[in-house]
Amino acid sequence: MAPKKASKPAAKKAAPKAAPKPAAPAKKAKKAEKKKGGGAERPQVTGVYVTGLDFEGMSHETVKEQFKHCQNITEVRLRHGKYALIFFGTKANANKALEMNKKLVKGNKISVVLAKRARPTKVREGKCTTVFVGGLPGATTKKQLATHFADCGSITKVRVYSKHYGFVYFDSAAAATKAVAMGDVPFSHGKDTSRMEEVPHQLSRTLEVKYSIRTKASDAVRNEKRYNRRPPSAIEAAEKKAANRVASHAAAKAAKEAEKKKAAGSAAKGSTTKKSSTTKK
Q1: What is residue 39's DSSP assignment?
Q2: CA distances (Å), origin 2, targets 5, 9, 80, 216
Q3: For residue range 217-232, what is the model confidence (pLDDT) as tens digits?
Q4: What is the DSSP letter of 238?
Q5: Closest by alpha carbon to 169, among 121, 219, 122?
Q6: Structural domains in the chain?
Q7: Which residues are 77's β-sheet partners?
Q8: pTM of the model
Q9: Separation between Cα atoms, residue 220 and residue 226, nearest integer Å
């Protein structure tokens, strides 16, 4: 028989075409639009942190003097021993301040970086009802400070601290505005200097007066958190531990006394039984 012819291999099937990718979801499209500029714009960074700046007589004015070439300084905050925070009118002014990074200022090598999270102080005029008063002479009393600002309006509260500053609370924002305008009025400790031929220096110094966001309600909330905090402070924990120790010692002492009384009672009972047995004999 003639040999069978080898069958031809079957032709390869054509690979199926890839299915078209589904369109991007709506969320991704929205994100892309925001990246392109469709979303809300972030506020410009107009502040810088300055560390390593420490010299004698350092103040808001002297710090402004060191950075005056950057121009348009709107605010300076000082945290002595930590840093200075300087805000400018535009981002270009802040970028110019970055050129001071790693330079010597008053013999100190300073570090200047952008303050990305810090924000300038909001406008407080016409909104705040409390003023901060700095530069108070030693031993200033609440009554003296209240007398100094009595003509501004109704005062609801006065606080004076040992570090030569205080707060005056008014019943309206208009009264606080009048108090801020008294920054150039000499502080005379509540004394009448109109009849004095020459006013002494102690009665002619001016005070630093500026707006404060403090209110009587915020003070109450702060005090509640301070005195009713959880977990308890170290002092409260130590007092509780001492009280528990005293209670445990008293309980142990009472238990020992009860055991002694019980032993004494059993011994007395044994002696009476012995006596009764001898009498019967």
Answers
A1: S
A2: 9, 21, 109, 115
A3: 998 888 877 776 566 6
A4: H
A5: 219
A6: 47-114 (3.30.70.330), 130-214 (3.30.70.330)
A7: 85
A8: 0.49
A9: 10
